[in-house]
Amino acid sequence: MFVVNNFIGAIAQLVDFLLMAYMWIIIGRAVISWVNADPRNPIVHFLYEATEPLLSRIRRLLPMSMGGIDFSPLILIMVIMFLQSFLVPTLKQLSKGMG
Fold it and tell me: At what angle are helices 72-97 and 42-61 packed, to 10 degrees?
């Protein structure tokens, strides 16, 4: 049973890392949007390709653009923070409680 516990604990750590990495990608996308970045730059292209699917869904559901400011990255970061404070600890407690 300890193998399943360790596996779920490892999944929790991996999910936590992936959520944190994606949050930094969103922050990078927001910073890039403030400057006149070359859209042909591979880094800029990656940031837009990695974030646009989720950001466009948020924009469709909650059209909250006030004065030309896009709040969808902020909303997505709050969702990530919620998942980090709910999902990751739940998985960690699940891995400890299975023993």
Answer: 90
The CA distances from residue 99 to 6, 14, 26, 88, in Å, are 10, 21, 37, 18
Each residue of 3-52: pLDDT tens digit? 989 999 999 999 999 999 999 999 999 999 889 888 899 999 999 999 99
Number of domains the chain is built from: 1
* pLDDT(68) > 70: yes
Print the domain residue range for 93: 2-97
Closest of 46, 54, 13, 47 to residue 29, by C-alpha: 47
